[in-house]
Amino acid sequence: MWETGPNLTKHSLSLTRWQRLCQQFDIDDPYAIKQEFQRIARAYGEKHRAYHTAQHINECLSWLDQSAQKAAILHCSSLEMALWYHDWVYQPQLNDNEQRSAEQAVTFLNTHHVHPAQIKQVEMLILATGHLADSKSDRKAESVDWMVDIDLAILGAVPQRFLQYNSQIHQEYGWLPDAVYQARREQVLSAFLGRPTIYQTGLFQAQLEIQARENLSVAIGAL
Hints:
The structure is a single chain. It is globular and about 50 Å long. By secondary structure, the chain is mainly alpha-helical. It has helices spanning about 15-25, 30-45, 55-70, 75-85, 95-110, 115-130, 140-150, 160-170, 180-195, 200-220. The protein is about 65% helix and about 0% strand.
């Protein structure tokens, strides 16, 4: 049984884990590593956030760890780097959060002379969390499938955690009139439910597809 429940509610990021990841990219400046970590932590601690916080990043990292134990995942370090950065910029009123978040990652990795191919990989993975592709034929790489599935794993969380997530999203869009929010939310959730499969990897389909569809149906009904 995968860990998908409310026990994954840690609201602080791990400096040790970040340091270990940077070492995998041959970044060895302790001061710069810690400084970047502090910038990341501040971003995910912004007051307007309720879901897109350190809690979400920690859950994503946990999904990555559990997936890596069960399947061979290529570019695992790039996936992890992308997960750290993918919601760095989160402003509900903007439509280019993923692009802005990718720019933060690219800037840091370029500053420390990471190989261009690795930087491009991280950038591609972050941009994929815009969730614009709706079929496997639209995917460019297997690693993109893992990235998207991990980001959407919350849809297949146990009902208690999913309801908490749904409430957190509502908080982040509290500036919208309720009728407008409900209409937009129904459109988003129905789009996921209307896909042939919500998840692209066999592992996530087996573990979370049924629960995700149940969760989405309940959430749409509640609207």
